[in-house]
Request: fold
Amino acid sequence: MKKQLFFLLLMFAQVVLYAQPRYSSSVFKPQQPKVNAGVQIVYDAKGKDLEFSDEVQAALFMYDNLQWKRVNISLAKDAQGLWVGEVPLTPATAFVAVKFFQGDSNQPDAADNNADKGYAVALQAADGKPLAGAFLAEAGFQNPIIAGGIFYGYYSEDPKASDAAYLKSLAAKEQAISGKQYIAYFESWMKLQQLALGDAFPAYASTFIQDALKDKTLKDETLGVFYTYAHSRLKDERLATLIEGRVKKDFPQGATARFMAYNKTKGSSPDRAEVIASFEDFLASFPIEQWRKNPNGQGFIYYAVYRGLGSSYFDSKQFDKFTALYNDLDFRTGNELMRWNIMRAYMFKMVGQDTLYNISEAILPKLIARKDDGSYLNDFDTREKADSNMLRQLDDRLFTHISLLNDLKKYQEARKYFLALSEAGKYSNAELNEINMQVLEGLEDDKQLLPLLEMSARENAMTPKMFDKLKALYLEQHDGQDAGYAAYLAGLKSDEEKAEMKAYVDQHWVNHPMPLFRLEDADGLFVTPEDWKGKIVVVDFWATWCRPCIMAFPGMQLLVDKYAKDQDVAIYMLGTMQTGDYKNKSVNYVRGEGYRFNLLHDAVNPKTNEQDLVFKQLVPLFGDSSIPRKIVVKDGKVRYCSGGYSGSPSKLMDELSLAIETLRNEK
Reply:
């Protein structure tokens, strides 16, 4: 009998032990607070990492209305040296956790979270009873997998999962309080049960959902939650089919039925006819106009369906059906279809230009008409950001169409669409500016030509051909004398542009040893560090497969021409990371396009047999292996380094010129 009693006492002690949370509520006043009475944080930093901090803040993690939210508050130091603050409660706040820190909340200088045990407290209602969500929040705080990503950064190490018996007790207590509110926290609830039950969880979840389905008053939203969980999480197709039958019976045109129908489309099928048929069937059953009368969070479905259907129509050359889709599309979806299909077809010459013009001309006016429909709003924090993105996207679509019209010598139409560009887009793209110069030349509109070139120069978005034209116009007006041309050109650039350029260059100064090298040039001769002594040397790392590298060539040609007679400056185009007969590839491409470059070939790494020996030695400086990459070398050191291409040849020339002249003038 004594042994049995001892065993029972031991079991009771274990249950009590399991039921003890790891966290401390010592920093909250009162330590058993009621949500209607207010809660203070009173933090004693003595002996802790924040003891000598002069500014302590509190990161509050609050379970409010069955949802986690995070709020940062500043604390004030009282006469006793304690840090004090008020917790911003609402009537539905069931649980509060806190982490103290100094500095940036994401990367604090110092922090205190009770040595990874946590500071937290559960709140009570006015009558002293627990609030709905309190026990689920307690479980989620100590087992972050239950709560999702809200506690990322709270713990220095992920806490060990709580004991199953403890989790079961929390689940039982929560169920007793919250009852059928489970839909509001279904995912968290199931994660809690999964941790508590282990291998027994799938059977529990299936039984739980089947029992819930006995309720004949379940809403469409609830059935949708059950279907998604059964289909995606449990992978229980029998249960998913059971729910599907209920949905079709009770809500045949509801959101869940729509989602299930979307799941059955064949967007990933290699059979294009099957893709088209499945998407057409979906739209026939669930027209977008029906959804627009009662929109919910399923807009992504129509975005995906129209993208897939539009691309399938385009690739199968059903262009009439492709253009007809634009009767239904919002700006966001229509923009993506035009970007992927029209721009791609233009760049890669997939469709004849006359045919492509007819398609593009049919859809672009409809896209322009819907530019203010707000379809991008959900992708951005503010209307301002959404509208800014919309204008950039529309400018890009106009660029493609104007380029096509210029190729077809439809200059009058091209000029009309140029005027439809945003104010920010009219002169900021060098390639588009050159096209518009060609359009004005085609229209013989000399009156507009000089203003276009001057505005383009002001935006520092000029190409070599534009510089040639601008200089020719200047010489015409000055009796062939170019004495004042340099000052005229410099005066066209705005002070803002000059300041931005200087700030950009100032951010890219470095001081890194240049690796030793012996590199072959286009004529089979070799260049070594000895050849660079006493010079400022610009090196452009590029490859024939790198489109941004090739796009930057006109800017590099401007730089080469500017310093062609300067014995103290050398400029090299160094091909790297290429395959096959890379030497002939590089030389043939550059000479075939008429560029006048000093070419170098990166050496082959004997350990890997890759053509990247010099480039890879500089990757620690670059931070990644992307190209194009420009460096400026002086006295055996890499002194300047920048990557990418802005899209403006003149801006690239000015950037590297400023770096060269700064190094030339340094003492």
